[in-house]
Write a structure and sequence with these properties.
This protein is mainly α. It is built from 13 helices and no strands.
Amino acid sequence: MNCINVLKNLVLKSQFYVSFCATLLGIFVLKEQESYQNSLAVVLFLTFWNGYIFTVFHKKKDAIFINLVGFALITFLIFTFINLEFFIKWLIILLLGSLYNADFFKLNFREFSLIKTFYVGFVWAMSLVWLPLNNENLCIDFSSLFSSDFIRCFINSSLRDFPIHWFFIIFFFVSGITFPFEIRDLERDQFPTLPKVLGVKNTKYLSYLFLFLSSILAINFIKLNFALAFLFTSIFAMILAYFSDRKRPDWYYSFLLESLSALPFLILILLKYFC
């Protein structure tokens, strides 16, 4: 039992597992677009891990130190293997992520309980779709870094060939698998949440709807084997959402539901080697 608790703390409570699963979802997106790079995968993993450590533990001094080390390491990797334009996009992602639960910002989206789930889906979609989007570094000129020409060029470059279908696939999917966590936290939340306002059953219906929309977009806009992997994942996600309630053990959410982000990539591997 002690070994299990140690493993749980190292893998789940350290935010390593959710970050790893998020990275596999990002790799899935990049593979479908044929733009995968090892450096992008590493940066995505460290960004999610650093972000979740900040979100969960930012009031602890040890977490601040870890975040600073993580910031320095990711910055080094970006300037070594990617480019400055990616670094600016990464800073924007950090800002968006920190707005979710940072006490030093007056705007804290976690306090907007009725929209926080949608905000999580938005930040994940930006992190997995917009951030890794291939840019040619056309705007980088340190002498004009803050000029209107640079800003205009950066916006145009960072949105060029933006796969809007992937943005909404990830947004609907991540939001859909986050709704059950709202059901889990129904009693501990001291503010109005979707399950409190809509009811548990209607919150589940909302989860089914978002997962259905994600699957429909995947079937219509991405390659067949990737779409099938996403469809199977969404069906399994709906099953987990259906059985979610306040009495489920912690592993049901922190392991099973978190694993849904990794499932499309794992199913894709199975389809490749066994079909």
